[in-house]
Structure formats: structure tokens, C-alpha cells
Design a protein that fits this description.
The complex is a heterodimer of chains A (299) and B (309).
Chain A: H1 2-14, H2 22-32, H3 34-52, H4 90-126, H5 128-143, H6 146-157, H7 161-187, H8 191-198, H9 203-211, H10 216-239, H11 251-261, H12 267-294
Helix pairs in contact in A: 2-12, 3-12, 4-5, 4-7, 4-10, 4-11, 4-12, 5-7, 6-7, 7-10, 8-9, 10-11, 10-12, 11-12
Chain B: H1 2-29, H2 43-52, H3 59-71, H4 86-121, H5 126-140, H6 143-157, H7 171-201, H8 204-211, H9 216-228, H10 230-253, H11 259-268, H12 272-300, H13 302-308
The chains are: A mainly alpha (299), B mainly alpha (309).
Chain lengths: 299, 309
């Protein structure tokens, strides 16, 4: 009896009381994408581990345990992931490295977000000569082998973490600017923009109040795809020894150390490599999932 | 078409100029110089060294001298590798980097296109899911993680391949680095190929071809492959740039004497001319490759071909 009543309830809930919004549809589609959902939970778990995990270890990230060097995971001594060649605890180092990697990812993505969205929206909204000058600049920057310049920059100015943020953020905004510009160009001829203009709204007001909120979907997709890209670049630099410096560490630096040490203890490679790969994997799947969910053609 | 190529080549000049300018001044404002050493050098020697390499001129004079030299194709002498010009060093390292990079790109293209096509034909089957989730892992695992893992399993645990070195380009030395360098691009290309192939296979002319009685493999090879390749071709430009950058890491891990190794070493030693030479060389290479890709694109897509002619 309980069963049948819950079924009718379920049916009643399905009847459209109000029309569903575009976002509601997108959310439903995203919820039915099991891989994206699974990735989101995995990422959440990783995040909790990275934030709170280090407090569950008795070791500091730069503590050198002379008794245990390059050991395999060992619960008796409290080295859950083993130790590196200097006897530092890999569990703590991997999680703290994760903090740095994710922090770089978030900060550099925010930098790219602010520059890219503003730049793209302005170019797209004004169009004409301003647009072609602004986008020509993007084209020129795009054609540069940017990784080489970033390598140069870190070699030249030393390995300052804020410099890495700025360098990566300053490069990664190009994609965002292009996408936002394209979206803006198609938005600006819509009736609601015309209405806002007719009501006497100023240009900045139109851009910030009417254009930007409508870019939200596509921007969210590109944020989730930019974060793994940034983490990757930071890891790449750290791997070359140009990113974060000792005793601090990031996943890229840990993979580098692990690779040097792998013949003695493969765990020092496998743990950071695993964390890095799983994080990138999750971000990519979530980004893909959101992109599919927002695309109205897929409904 | 000729006009188009000419226009593109002209448009590349500001890009290269910007690249040279940024790289030149970045290097020069850096603390330290190419002649720094542990020992204190007598002032006279310092002065004559500076004079020999024109380092006693103002920065702007040096900049314009460098531009003039480079427009004649003269990259100057290396500061660190005595008695070598940068051109000689590039000529030595580039063939190695080129064979590594082109093999990786070729491998990525062949395998990526095949995997993508198979996944598209078997859409939503277990084979499709398997191939596409492995592709996603391929995209997510960076080359500097793949490379040590490959080394660990195939050179340390199993003694199948040498753990590094170039071995004059013997295939045994090539397999692991090429695999590590190309995996990401195999994955990306297969994803691109799958989605474009699915779209093409749903179009009317494919149905017509099937209705005429052509087999699936004939339809794919004769009718679907060429249009489905378009997104892959436009991805080749960024892919080539990525492979060039990636080879810096791969060359480091596998101890391969290519251009990438010179670049990082040169930057650490403040070998101004060598670093500039490698950057300019790669910049030109990327510009030319992008142009080649666009020409190829026009050749594949008749709509675009008409626009240019």
C-alpha cells in the first residue's frame, strides 16, 4: 500500500506545475551522467583528504625520519604512503603538495577568468575596429610558444610561487577570451539587449548586468576544463625543477623526485602520480559532463 | 591560394617580432650573466669578453644588432658551448627532436584516428565505453607521469627496452619516448575523431551510399573519413606545438640529446644566444606548421578551398 501511494506521489511530482527552466534541465541531465557524478564525489573526497588529511599524521612535511628512508607504506611507523629518499613522510607531502597544486589551479583560473571574460565581453560587444585590434593581439599571443616563455620567466625571476600564478594565469586567459567574445557577439543583437539600450542603460551596465550573466554556462564549462590544464602546467614546471621549491612541494615536484627514486621505492612515484592523474581525470569528466548537460541539443 | 599563403607569412612577422622582443628583454633583465663564475675575473678580461660579444653596447643597440643578425639567419655564437655557433648546436640537436616529435605525431594520428573511428562505428557499445574512458585517462595523465611509469615497468621491472639514451635512433631506444610523448595526443585525437565521425555517419549522403549497397568499411574509407578528419586536422597545429614543448620533458627523462635539453640548460646558464636561438627556431617552426595545417585543411574542405581561390 505504501508502495502504490509513493508511486502516485512520484507521478504527481513529474507533472509539470511550472515549466522547467533551462538550468533545471541541465541539472537533471548532469545528475543522470553517472561518470560525472562519480567524478564529483571522488573529487570531493580528495579535497577533504587534502584539507584535513595532514592533521591525521604525526609527521611534519619537512621532518626527516632517519630510521625510515625510501620505505614502502607502513602503518606501524605511521608512514601510510611510505617515505621518500630523505626519509620524509610521503602521505603528508602528497597531501600538502595537493594543496599547492589545487591552489595554483584555482588562483590562476580566477586570474584567467577575470581577464578573459572582461576582455572577450568588451571585444565582442563593441565589435568593429576595437574587436579586430583586440582579437589580433590574442592571435599574436596565441601563436607564441608560451611554455617556453613561462620556462624563461621562472628561470629568470627565480621560482616565486606568485610568479607562477601570474605567468600561468596570464597565458591561460586567451581561450576564455575567444569563447566569451563569440558568445557575446551572438548575444548583443538579441532583443533584450536592445530593450536595455532603449531604456537608457549605460554600456558597462549592459555588459555586466545583461551580457555576463548569460555567459555563465559556457564560462563554467571552461573553468572546469581550465583548472586541470593549470594544474598540469604547474606540475610540468615543478617537474622541470622550475616551479615550487624545497622544502615545499607540489604533485609535479613529487613526481619528479619519485621518478629519480623509483628503482628503490616505486611508491614515491606511484602515490603522487596517482593523485595527480585522478584529480585531472575527475575535473575533465565533470567539465565534459557539464558541457553535455548545458547543450540544449542533447535533451 | 598563393596570395593566401603570402598573407599568412606576412602576418607571422609581428608574432615572431613580439616573441623575439619579449624573450630578448626577459633574458637581459634577469640577474646574472653568461660570464659569471666562481672565480673573480680580472676587469680587463671581463671588458674584452664583453666587447667581443658586444655586451658593452646599450641594451637597445644589442637588440637591434640581434634583429639585424637574425634577419640574415645568423643566430650568433653560443656563450656556453665554446667554439660552437648556435646554428651548429641547433643543427646537431634538431634532427633528434624532429624524429622524436614527428614519430610521436604520426603515431598519435594513425592510432587516434583508428580508435576514434572504431568507437564511432560501435557507438554506445562496451568497446566504445572502454576506448573512450581509456582516452580520458590518456588525456588526464601527463607525459611526465607516463614516461617514468613506462620506464619503471618496461625498463626496470622488465628489461625489454633501454632506460634512456638515443642509441643513434635505433627503434629500441625510440619506442618508450615516442609512446610517452604521443599518448596524450592519441587520446585527444580519438575523442575528436569519434564525435566528428558519429556526426558524419548520421548524414544523408552516408545513408545513400549505404543504400547503394556499399559495405560499411567502403563507406568509411571512401566517403566518411575525409570530412570526419577536418576537426583532427585543425587540432594538428596545437598538437604539434604541444609535442614540441613536451619533448623538452621527454628528452630530459630519457636523456635524449635534442633541442629541448639545450633550451633548459641554456636558460639556466644564461646562454643568451642559445636560448634565443631555440625560441626563435621553435617559433618559426610552429608558425610554419600552422600554415601547413591550414593549407591541408583547405585541401580537405572544398568549401574553404573556394573561399581562398
Amino acid at each position: 500500500m505504501f508502495n502504490s501511494s509513493s508511486k502516485t506521489l512520484h507521478k504527481a511530482a513529474q507533472l509539470p506545475k511550472h515549466g522547467k527552466s533551462l538550468w533545471h534541465h541541465a541539472w537533471l541531465r548532469l545528475k543522470s551522467n553517472k561518470l560525472a557524478l562519480f567524478s564529483a564525489f571522488t573529487l570531493l573526497f580528495l579535497l577533504l583528504m587534502i584539507v584535513f588529511g595532514p592533521y591525521f599524521s604525526q609527521y611534519a612535511f619537512d621532518f626527516i625520519d632517519w630510521e625510515y628512508m625510501s620505505i614502502a607504506p607502513d602503518f606501524a611507523s605511521g608512514h601510510y604512503f611510505g617515505t621518500d629518499a630523505l626519509g620524509r613522510d610521503l602521505y603528508v607531502r602528497t597531501l600538502l603538495g595537493g594543496r599547492i597544486s589545487l591552489l595554483v589551479g584555482l588562483v590562476a583560473t580566477s586570474v584567467s577568468l577575470i581577464i578573459g571574460v572582461t576582455y572577450g565581453a568588451v571585444a565582442g560587444y563593441f565589435g568593429g575596429g576595437i574587436d579586430s585590434i583586440m582579437m589580433r593581439l590574442v592571435d599574436v599571443l596565441y601563436a607564441l610558444p608560451f611554455m617556453f616563455l613561462v620556462i624563461l620567466l621562472t628561470v629568470v625571476f627565480g621560482n616565486h610561487i606568485s610568479l607562477i600564478f601570474a605567468a600561468i594565469g596570464g597565458y591561460i586567459w586567451l581561450d576564455m577570451a575567444r569563447i566569451v567574445r563569440g558568445q557575446t557577439m551572438s548575444l548583443k543583437n538579441k532583443e533584450f539587449i536592445e530593450a536595455a539600450q532603449a531604456m537608457g542603460a549605460t554600456t558597462p551596465a549592459i555588459i555586466f548586468k545583461h551580457i555576463l550573466p548569460n555567459l555563465f554556462g559556457i564560462v563554467v564549462v571552461y573553468i572546469t576544463l581550465t583548472i586541470p590544464q593549470v594544474i598540469l602546467i604547474e606540475a610540468f614546471l615543478s617537474f622541470l625543477g622550475l616551479g615550487i621549491q624545497e622544502p615545499y612541494t607540489s604533485w609535479g615536484a613529487l613526481v619528479n623526485e619519485g621518478a629519480l627514486d623509483m628503482e628503490i621505492s616505486a611508491y614515491s612515484l606511484l602515490f603522487p602520480a596517482g593523485f595527480l592523474a585522478v584529480t585531472l581525470f575527475c575535473f575533465n569528466f565533470i567539465g565534459d559532463g557539464i558541457r553535455d548537460a548545458i547543450d540544449p541539443k542533447k535533451s | 591560394m598563393f596570395n593566401y599563403i603570402l598573407k599568412r607569412l606576412l602576418a607571422a612577422i609581428p608574432t615572431l617580432l613580439l616573441l623575439i622582443t619579449v624573450a630578448f628583454f626577459l633574458l637581459r633583465v634577469a640577474p646574472g650573466g653568461p660570464f659569471d663564475s666562481e672565480k673573480e675575473m680580472p676587469v680587463e678580461i671581463q671588458r674584452s669578453l664583453a666587447a667581443k660579444y658586444h655586451m658593452d653596447e646599450t641594451l637597445l643597440q644589442q637588440y637591434f644588432r640581434y634583429l639585424a643578425n637574425i634577419s640574415r639567419g645568423d643566430f650568433g655564437p653560443s656563450f656556453q658551448y665554446k667554439d660552437f655557433t648556435v646554428t651548429e648546436l641547433i643543427a646537431e640537436g634538431f634532427p633528434v627532436s624532429l624524429s622524436l616529435g614527428s614519430l610521436a605525431l604520426f603515431f598519435a594520428l594513425i592510432v587516434g584516428v583508428s580508435i576514434g573511428t572504431i568507437a564511432a562505428v560501435k557507438q554506445n557499445s562496451w568497446a566504445d565505453y572502454l576506448l573512450m574512458s581509456s582516452a580520458m585517462s590518456g588525456i588526464s595523465v601527463p607525459n611526465f607521469v607516463v614516461a617514468p611509469l613506462l620506464l619503471l615497468f618496461f625498463a626496470v621491472y622488465r628489461d625489454w627496452f633501454p632506460a634512456g639514451g638515443w642509441g643513434e635512433g635505433q627503434w629500441r631506444y625510440l619506442i618508450l619516448p615516442v609512446l610517452a610523448l604521443s599518448l596524450h595526443y592519441v587520446a585527444y585525437i580519438s575523442r575528436l575523431m569519434r564525435s566528428s565521425m558519429i556526426e558524419i555517419l548520421q548524414s544523408d549522403y552516408i545513408r545513400t551510399a549505404r543504400a547503394k549497397g556499399l559495405s560499411l568499411s567502403q563507406v568509411i574509407i571512401k566517403h566518411a573519413l575525409r570530412p570526419a578528419l577536418l576537426p583532427v586536422v585543425s587540432y594538428l597545429g596545437p598538437a604539434a606545438a604541444g609535442i614540441i614543448t613536451g619533448s623538452v620533458v621527454i628528452e630530459k627523462i630519457f636523456a635524449i640529446p635534442g633541442l629541448g635539453a639545450y633550451f633548459v640548460q641554456g636558460a639556466l646558464n644564461r646562454d643568451y644566444t642559445l636560448v634565443m636561438g631555440v625560441i626563435v627556431f621553435f617559433g618559426v617552426l610552429i608558425v610554419l606548421f600552422n600554415l601547413l595545417v591550414d593549407v591541408l585543411y583547405a585541401w580537405l574542405d572544398p568549401k574553404i578551398r573556394l573561399e581562398y581561390s
